[in-house]
Design brief:
The complex is a heterotrimer of chains A (347), B (359) and C (535). In chain A, 56% of the residues are buried. Chain A has one domain: ABC transporter involved in vitamin B12 uptake, BtuC (Orthogonal Bundle), CATH 1.10.3470. In chain A, strand 1 and strand 2 form a beta hairpin. In chain A, 72% of the residues lie in helices and 1% in strands. Chain A is built from 14 helices and two strands. Chain A starts with 13 loop residues before the first helix and ends in a 9-residue tail after the last helix. Chain B is globular and about 55 Å long. In chain B, 74% of the residues lie in helices and 1% in strands. In chain B, strand 1 and strand 2 form a beta hairpin. By secondary structure, chain C is of the alpha/beta class. Among the domains of chain C are: 172 residues, Rossmann fold, CATH 3.40.50.300; 71 residues, no CATH class. Chain C is 32% helix and 24% strand. Chain C contains 18 helices and 22 strands. Chain C is globular. The chains are: A mainly alpha (347), B mainly alpha (359), C alpha/beta (535).
């Protein structure tokens, strides 16, 4: 009983088909990022051969690991049309809370991991409850918890500073798996791949996309919208907690303003946006965010090699966000122009 | 002439009464804030010695938070239009630094330097606004990016030793001077606040602002010049940030490149606490003004009592959460259907932020 | 295991889904197929004190298309939403196949096989058509419990084929037309093996041709023994498709009719609760002498939507623009009004030629546009009536000492509101407290305040009750009598035939015909809008 419909699948010739496939590839943010990264690396390597020294590569990649893990959590939240500004103090609280026992009582690394995961989940639950049950807009909620958790971190640190961490921590934070491939990046990528699989291959993961695309439609489809949104914040908290441990291991220090002083919440959002996840929700993915985090680190290191003072680093991040935005907009405009005829999904 | 009349039942009286409530609820919110302010000041005056200081101590304390208030006034305008400006904090730093550097290194007359700093702020606001309207992108993103860039520029300009020690006339007028017991900064703030309140409620620009905040596409279809209005809001917010930077410099008698960003979050808190709908449209500047003092005296009270600045920030956050839970709860209790409200919110989160559909 | 429903009704479908025993989630297991009778007993629902449904009892029988009819606000959509679990009922209960149902949630409703095809398709724009079909209950692999994308792709293709949707299942939903999205919604119901499918005004965004396709599908589903619920405001199609019609008025079930026992007028009387005379044309070409040209459009083009649009309007004239949805009518109007920029062409309003137009310059030149989508593009929902009515003339608002003169503004607004007889308790009431008809009148008031010469009215009676429709027609006649030129864009050919002196027909972005005077009949327009006579 197939009924003829006026709009048929478009037929395409071979050549234009190939061009279309290429075009679609180039429009993928992940591909754009890899190409841009290659360009930056090649240009820097030609000008400063030291750029490719294993030590430098390892340094750059290790530097991006914390951002990558935070951005992975941030991506989950943004996919569900939220935003999480409170990841910075969550990272800080976790760094402080395992940092002192580790320094003073040589806390076991496995226990430390459990501890940061627990703390991260608890703080994430706080955000999740406020957003999904009290229905306070995400940006306001996490702005508030950024202050509240920041104050908590200050109280917990009690004016002390972690300066010395056990060897096990240091090894995890600074050793390479292979030359130029630091452990921390392996962990970050491992987490991202796991989350990417979760997003692609589970009902819960797909539900996050559904809610971000159209919460009304998701509700009609029997998805518990609020529970999904809640989950994204809990996961973001969990990942921020792990990032806190990695931060502690990598830098060997933690104090009352760790995280908030370097604005890691904004860097994580920047990496996510550069990675092609859109603030309107439901579009993007974690692999892009990890690439975004690595790209940020590579580009900023390249700036250092180009003798641009370190104080300009934030400007570099800002410029990259603007660039990512304008390029995405461009492809968006073209796409919407092409489909103007067909009508769009009601929003 | 054709007879237009045909009997139709009016909307049910109950619904009309309920919706007409919105404005009264907004007014009640402001009244509740005033009450809160009075209680708070009483509490600190009684429990914290040195807080009240015969009234003049209290007034002098206000200098400590009027920089936040100035940013909040600009931020309120942007938020009413359905946008957000995250760059206001660092722009405040930049404006102070630019003024100071011009004065110290280029030997520009201080008041000329102030004007140049404000003009530059306006230009940066225009840049924000133009990028947002021209590329039709989310203001959250654009101002996040400019926040990074402006912060870096401010740090770079200030160098290792930020300029300090401004001429006495400047410090007196923009900084710590007083008229009788009233600090000059308070006078400056009062003038700005009243100006903004009147401009928002009683000018054509203010009307356009609120309407596009409520429903951007409908504004476009009604012939409101969206781009111009949004651009104006960002220029205004940047100017206010610039003023705030001047006030900070005057207060500390030094340019500070590190303080600006810490003003942003309290400023947004003040706007939301003041009852402005974060999605745009609804809200009153009077609420924002009262909220400036509520939050300011709370923070200062805690600081005078010996709490650390971070635990004061923590209280700020808690206050914000409690107020919003209350406010959202009250709005819901006032009769909106819960699901309809959820839907409305979902629609609005996606709505105002998106550029108009037809262009 | 019971045979999947989809097999029973269409044994020949080769690619029908294979039932998987484990891990496939509860929803993919077919509910028992026989005798799915859905009965609502005494449903009552009120929103913040206003009763929307008052003890309504209806039943949906297998193999029957049961239509709910009523004015806006009569409670039809609310009833469907309760049946599909979107709203909880205050009182009353549901019975499915003789079992009393627990309080429904959307998920539970889906599990029991009840699905609502909403008024506007609500899909996930960035997700593929296939995934949209399964959202919330993606089939999973047996052991790993991971999403089984291969199966989704395969099953989706067959379900899409079943509803006659010839698209790649991987197409993102945002690339589909409204009609295709609507069919995708129907396919969702089939994927979930639903036995009760409720259609809430599915035809309002569809063209006549697309409506036929949808009706074909509905009849096929009916033949398979499903219960179908239907809501529409188009009486002719209701009479055509329905086996049973229940009329709701003010939240009460006031009448029921079986197929063939009812005439159009009976339905209208039942809906409105009083007799409404058959409307005859009130306007005819007259006093030609006093007319002058107020709008001239020459060679207006916007690729790829429309090409070479030329026409003119005279004062005192009501001109229609007929065309299918998607023919470019609304885009032409939006381009005239400066909401889109044309590739080329000129527009003259009165004496002035407007090169680069914006809505503001058009309004100031005397051209206004009443948008089709009142909720999104017209009203400021939570804003009071005054500010809504004056929104079109913000730059002209009265001032005193440089500040807005609010009392003057309110005086102006109340005059404009009185001219279109908006019924409201006060000018301070938020506009979303008014009925659809009154909101539309307020929109007319807004544009009266701009004192236009030319009014483009896009679907002026959309979302307006039958009773209020006539009032809108009267307002339009009144405007024309006062010298204004009106261009009415409408899908309702009857409406055009009733109100217009002249009708332009748009087909695929071109003006393909113009009919005037006695030639304007629904039959003639119906031929032209589908492109008959286009060389």
């Amino acid at each position: 009983m197939t009924v003829a419909l006026p709009l048929r699948r478009r037929e395409r010739g071979g050549a234009s088909m190939r061009r279309a496939v290429l075009g679609r590839w180039l429009r993928l943010r992940e591909v754009q990022l890899v190409l841009a990264m290659a360009a930056v690396v090649i240009a820097s390597a030609i000008l400063h051969p030291d750029f490719l020294a294993p030590g430098n590569i390892s340094f750059m990649l290790a530097d991006s690991a914390v951002t990558a893990i935070l951005a992975t959590g941030q991506t989950l939240v943004i996919l569900g049309k939220g935003i999480d500004l409170s990841v910075a103090p969550i990272l800080g609280i976790c760094a402080v809370e395992v940092g002192f026992p580790a320094q003073n009582h040589n806390l076991n690394l496995a226990l430390a991991l459990m501890l940061v995961m627990g703390i991260g989940i608890m703080l994430g639950i706080g955000n999740g409850l406020l957003v999904s049950w009290a229905r306070i807009p995400p940006i306001i909620t996490t702005l508030a918890t950024l202050s509240v958790y920041g104050g908590l971190q200050f109280i917990l640190a009690n004016g002390q500073e972690v300066v010395n961490i056990p060897n096990a921590y240091d090894t995890l934070g600074n050793a390479d798996l292979l030359s130029g491939v630091p452990w921390v990046l392996v962990i970050a990528v491992g987490i991202a791949v796991a989350v990417a699989l979760f997003l692609r291959q589970t009902n819960l993961g797909r539900s996050i996309y559904a809610v971000g695309n159209n919460a009304d439609a998701a509700h009609r489809s029997g998805i518990a919208v609020r529970r999904i949104i809640f989950t994204t914040y809990v996961l973001s908290g969990l990942l921020a907690g792990i990032a806190g441990l990695i931060y502690l291991c990598h830098t060997g220090s933690a104090d009352s303003t760790t995280g908030t002083d370097s604005n890691v919440e904004l860097t994580s959002i920047a990496a996510t946006l550069i990675g092609g996840t859109t603030l309107t929700g439901g579009r993007g993915g974690v692999i892009g965010s990890v690439l975004g985090a690595i790209f940020l680190s590579v580009a900023l290191t390249a700036m250092v090699f180009a003798r641009i003072p370190a104080i300009w680093e934030p400007a570099g991040v800002g410029a990259l966000i603007l660039l990512a935005m304008v390029t995405d907009r461009h492809s968006g405009t073209l796409a919407s122009r092409a489909r103007r005829r067909g009508g769009e999904v009601a929003r | 002439m054709i007879d237009l009349k045909l009997p139709r039942p009016a909307a049910p009286a109950a619904t009309v009464a309920r919706r007409a409530d919105t404005r009264r609820r907004d007014r009640n919110w402001v009244l509740a804030l005033v009450l809160l302010l009075v209680l708070e000041v009483l509490y600190f005056s009684v429990t914290v010695s040195g807080f009240f200081g015969n009234g003049s101590g209290l007034l002098a304390l206000s200098e400590q938070f009027l920089d936040v208030g100035a940013i909040a006034l600009g931020e309120a305008v942007v938020i009413l239009a359905g946008e957000i400006d995250l760059s206001a904090g660092t722009l405040s730093s930049l404006s102070g630094i630019v003024m100071a550097v011009l004065w110290q290194q280029q030997h520009v007359e201080i008041w000329v330097a102030v004007v140049i700093a404000l003009v530059l702020s306006g230009v940066i606001g225009a840049f924000n606004g133009l990028v947002i309207t021209f590329f039709k992108v989310d203001s959250l993103l654009v101002t996040l990016a400019t926040q990074f860039i402006l912060g870096a520029v401010a740090t770079a300009l200030s160098g290792s030793s930020p300029p300090y020690g401004f001429p006495g006339s400047f410090v007196s007028i923009a900084g710590t001077g007083t008229i009788g017991p009233i600090p000059n900064q308070l006078v400056v703030f009062a003038v700005l606040a009243i100006g903004v309140a009147v401009a928002v409620s009683r000018t054509r620009m203010g009307r356009s602002l609120a309407l596009i905040g409520y429903n951007r596409p409908a504004g476009r279809y009604s012939g409101i010049r969206i781009e111009r209005t949004v651009l104006g809001a960002f220029v205004f917010s940047a100017l206010m940030a610039g003023v705030s930077g001047i006030l900070v410099s005057g207060l500390y008698n030094a340019a500070r490149d590190d303080i600006g960003n810490s003003l942003l979050l309290p400023a947004i808190t003040v706007v939301v606490l003041g009852g402005v709908d974060i999605f745009g449209g609804r809200g009153r500047i009077s609420g924002v003004i009262v909220a400036t003092f509520v939050l300011g005296f709370l923070t200062q009270g805690l600081l005078v009592a010996g709490d650390s600045s971070l635990s004061a920030t923590m209280v700020t956050g808690i206050l914000l959460i409690v107020c919003l839970v209350l406010k959202i709860g009250l709005d819901r209790r006032a009769g909106l259907d819960v699901r309809a409200m959820l839907r409305q919110r979902i629609a609005r989160t996606s709505g105002p932020r998106r550029a108009g559909e037809a262009s | 295991m019971t045979m999947p429903f989809i097999h029973r009704v269409q044994p020949k479908t080769a690619a029908a889904p294979e039932p998987t025993a484990g891990g496939s989630g509860p929803l993919v297991d077919p509910p028992p197929a026989s005798g799915a009778r859905l009965v609502a007993h005494g449903l009552t629902k009120s929103f913040s004190g206003a009763t929307v449904l008052d003890a309504v009892s209806v039943s949906f029988e297998p193999g029957e298309i049961h239509t709910l009819l009523g004015e806006n606000g009569a409670g039809k959509s609310t009833l469907f939403k309760i049946l599909s679990g979107l709203y909880p009922a205050d009182a009353g209960w549901l019975e499915l196949v003789g079992d009393r149902l627990p309080e429904l949630t959307p998920r539970l409703a889906l599990e029991r096989g009840i699905y609502l095809v909403p008024q506007e398709p609500t899909l996930m724009a960035h997700l593929s058509a296939a995934e949209n079909l399964y959202t919330g209950v993606l089939p999973r692999r047996r052991i790993s419990a991971l999403v089984d994308w291969g199966r989704i792709r395969k099953d989706a293709a067959s379900s899409l084929e079943r509803v006659g949707l010839d698209i790649d299942p991987e197409t993102p939903a945002r690339d589909l037309s409204i009609a295709q999205q609507q069919l995708l919604e129907c396919a969702r119901a089939l994927v979930h093996h639903c036995r009760v499918i409720l259609f809430d005004e599915p035809t309002s965004p569809l063209t006549a041709h697309e409506t036929e396709i949808l009706f074909g599908l509905m009849r096929a589903l009916q033949a398979e023994g499903l219960c179908l619920g239907f809501i529409s405001h188009r009486l002719d199609e209701v009479i055509e498709i329905s086996d049973r019609i229940s009329v709701l008025r003010d939240g009460r079930h006031v009448a029921s009719f079986d197929r063939g026992t009812v005439a159009r007028d009976d339905l209208v009387t039942a809906m409105v609760g009083r007799e409404i005379g058959v409307r005859t044309r009130t306007r005819r070409t007259s006093d030609l002498a006093s007319r002058q040209e107020v709008l001239r459009v020459e060679g207006l083009s916007l690729a790829p939507v429309f090409t070479d649009i030329s026409f003119h309007l005279l004062s005192h004239e009501v001109v229609g623009m007929a065309g299918l949805v998607g023919s470019g009518r609304t885009e032409i109007a939006e381009t005239l009004f400066g909401l889109r920029s044309a590739d080329r062409g000129s527009v003259r309003i009165g004496e002035r030629t407007l090169g680069h137009r914006s809505p503001r310059t058009c309004i100031d030149a005397g051209l206004i546009y009443l948008p089709e989508d009142r909720g999104r593009h017209g009203i400021f929902a939570e804003v009071d009536l005054t500010r809504n009515v004056t929104a079109g003339i913000v730059p002209r608002l009265p001032r005193r000492w440089g500040l807005l003169n609010k009392s003057e503004e309110e005086r102006g607004a109340s005059t404009a509101v009185a001219r279109t007889s908006v019924k409201t308790a006060s000018l301070g009431a938020a506009i979303n407290t008014l009925s659809g008809g009154n909101q539309q009148r307020a929109m007319f008031s807004r544009w009266l305040m701009a004192e236009p010469q030319v009014a483009i009215l896009d679907e002026p009676t959309r979302g307006v009750d039958i009773g209020a429709k006539d009032d809108i027609y009267d307002i339009i006649s009144d405007l024309a009598a006062s010298g204004m030129a009106c261009l009415i864009i409408s899908s309702d050919l009857e409406e055009l035939a009733l109100t217009c002196d002249r009708v332009l027909v748009v087909y695929e972005g071109r003006i393909v015909g113009e009919v005037g005077g006695a030639e304007i009949t629904t039959a003639r327009l119906g031929e032209l809008v589908v492109g008959a006579g286009v060389r």
